[in-house]
Amino acid sequence: MTTHLPLLDIRNLTKSYGAVKAVNDVSLHIDRGEIAGLIGPNGSGKSTFFDCSTGLARPDTGTVVLDGQDITGWSLNRIAREGRMLRSFQKTVTFRSLDVEENLIIAGQMFTFPSILSTFSIGKLSRQRIAGLRERARELIRMAGLWDVRHQPAGNLSGGQQKLIQFASMLMPEPKLILLDEPMAGINPKIIERVVETILYANKSLGVSFLVIEHNIDVVTSICRRVIVLDQGQKLAEGLPQDIIQDQRVREAYLGG
Amino acid sequence: MSLTQTSERARRRDYRIPLGILLFSVALAAPFIGSRYVVHALIIALVFMLPAHGLNLLVGYTGLLSLAQAAFFGIGAYTAGLLAIGYGTPFYVNAVVAGLAAGAVALPLGVPALRLRSTSFVMCTLGFVIIGQAIAKNWISVTRGDMGLSGIPKPYFELGPLSFTVGGTTGFYYLALAIGILATLAVFAVVRSPAGRNMVAIRENETLAESLGVPTWHYKLIVFMLSAVFAGVGGSLYAHYLTVVSPLTFQMYYSTTMLIIVLGGGAGMISGTIFGSLLFVGLTEALRITPELRMIAYGLCLLVLVFWFKQGFAPVINRVWNAIGGAK
Ligand SMILES: Nc1ncnc2c1ncn2[C@@H]1O[C@H](COP(=O)(O)OP(=O)(O)O)[C@@H](O)[C@H]1O
Ligand SMILES: [Mg+2]
């Protein structure tokens, strides 16, 4: 029964900033195991849609249902921790003064320790938990090709490497769903390949579903089975990537109608 | 960050353990080496190190600037003073209750204050000190108003059949040293725990931490309370040492001193707080004999700090420490 429900089901989401309707009555669902794309011109409300889905911003109206549970109004940390829906940010962020390994360990902590209080322990059990996280972190670091820089402060690394850290961090907690906000923007082709590989690996081997905001249309057509187009806060089209890029309305929106 | 020192560099001879033993021996022998006045200065430094340790957790590790430390210091001092005068309770009871009282008061203050943005939060914490002083002045039936509490007995211990009073300066120095070491170990434990890592994450990027499941607000509240506990214990030492407590215990000058210790020593580094306490409090106390020079020396210290050691002295200390440890 539950397997027929979508993993993420968002209904009639609306969010205004002053007079700007950043997101206007958008409904969207993500199926289990799916990689879906979210595209649209700059300012069309994609990031705001992410913010409202993940608890960073509160939607004016609309409901967010994750895995059969209504999570509308939950905080960002609770949606990550209890819902296992994680997100990246358009502007790359890392814990800059901490090294790569520590960045990843932080990402796993709240999913390994049962309570806030238990994180204050330096006992044996606590150390074992951290050792487990360190092992997982090292696996992901190797996969992301960051092995040689794992003891460097994240802030010293290139933008592309920091994107990889951000991405690997989100895999630490064994997430159900990851929302990526322009993961390929401003990084060199070699790292783009690496990010694509990692997304596909996470999807196939770890069973993670994805919703990806991306402007690189080649990447979108190669990894997404379904694409949703936003324009001026509204859903403009939805379908197979090859159909979407042919769609006249989508072309007009991008050319700036 | 000292959290991440796992380098695989070749090592020369490690002199850190002998040096550590030497420093510890000097600390133990201080009352026999230094004059009475030096020992007094060291006691004051140790007393202020406690609220500074707490403040370092808040400012240095979690990235929250607070001026409330003097308020919790004052609460701890009054609590210990009232207990000692009113009930004659042993010192450790006074110290623990003083810490808990300060921590408990921090809860209802922290809940609204931590909702504010950073600058408003700082102003709000400043308000706590002013309110604390007003209460100490006006709640006369308990605090005796401007007169304050006087005749607070010397620290008294009751351990099984054994009971004794810590009377002289030397005795008090060892008491303060023991508590200072315990507090340092406690801070070390917090910083090394997974929670310590979350605190640094909050300082580095609160939204990112939040997006990775860290309940940042709860952590900030807990650390705010924890910092108050340290200040409260420090206040209890202060009350027992001076034997008097007045509304002036709640003063901005103390909050800024504690902040200078943390920032000047090096925020986010335990060694910095220890060094900062010795330098800024120990030195100013030591210079009290030459009052003309005191403020000038203090000012010069701050200038040197601002121009040459923007991150405090701790990075320098750490470098020297690592060099002694044989790192290339
Ligand atoms: N925090 C905010 N405050 C005010 N306006 C905002 C905020 N976030 C987004 N907007 C506005 O909402 C609209 C959609 O922005 P955004 O979601 O960032 O679009 P996209 O990610 O598709 O480029 C823009 O007009 C933008 O200026
Ligand atoms: Mg955007």
TrEMBL record, chain A:
Pfam families, sorted: ABC_tran, BCA_ABC_TP_C
Domain of life: Bacteria
SMART domains in UniProt: AAA
PANTHER family on file: CONSERVED COMPONENT OF ABC TRANSPORTER FOR NATURAL AMINO ACIDS, CONSERVED COMPONENT OF ABC TRANSPORTER FOR NATURAL AMINO ACIDS-RELATED
Upper taxonomic lineage: Bacteria, Pseudomonadati, Pseudomonadota, Alphaproteobacteria, Hyphomicrobiales
Domain ABC transporter, residue spans: 8-257
Keyword Transport: yes
Name listed for the protein in its UniProt record: ABC transporter ATP-binding protein
Annotated signal sequence range: none
Molecular function GO terms recorded: ATP binding
Keywords: ATP-binding, Nucleotide-binding, Transport
Origin species: Shinella yambaruensis
Family: Belongs to the ABC transporter superfamily.
Automatic annotation (TrEMBL), chain B:
Transmembrane region(s): 39-59, 66-85, 91-114, 121-140, 171-191, 221-241, 253-281, 293-309
Keywords associated with the record: Cell membrane, Membrane, Transmembrane, Transmembrane helix
InterPro entries reported for this sequence: ABC_transp_permease, LivM-like
CDD domains: TM_PBP1_LivM_like
Topology within the bilayer: Multi-pass membrane protein
Cellular localisation: Cell membrane
Pfam family, one: BPD_transp_2
Primary localisation category: membrane
Protein name, per record: Branched-chain amino acid ABC transporter permease
Upper classification of the organism: Bacteria, Pseudomonadati, Pseudomonadota, Alphaproteobacteria, Hyphomicrobiales
